Amino acid sequence: IVPGIGPQRAITPEGKKIIVGLLCGLAVMRGAQVFAPGVMGAPKSLSKGDLVCVFADIEGKCCKGLTTFYDGHTFFVGNGIAMQNRSDWFGIDASNSGVAVK
Q: Going by C-beta distance under 8 Å and a sequence separation of 6 or more, which residues neighbour residue 29?
């Protein structure tokens, strides 16, 4: 861990919880946005514009399309705004492309 300098503030998870894959989580930690293929799970009630908290699945055990609470080993990546509906990521007519969370 590289110690930071300057003012720092603790960020706490806010909003609906979504799970992303480990590689997606690592990319977000380097400054990338969350893209749709990286999303593994989200609540059924998620809609475009919702506040979300993003957690990365460390173990890689989250099944794509998960709708229930995931109790596997995760780490908090950050908060954001959903740019698409859940149905855009999962389902029969899902495009599964583009920015999912900004």
A: 77
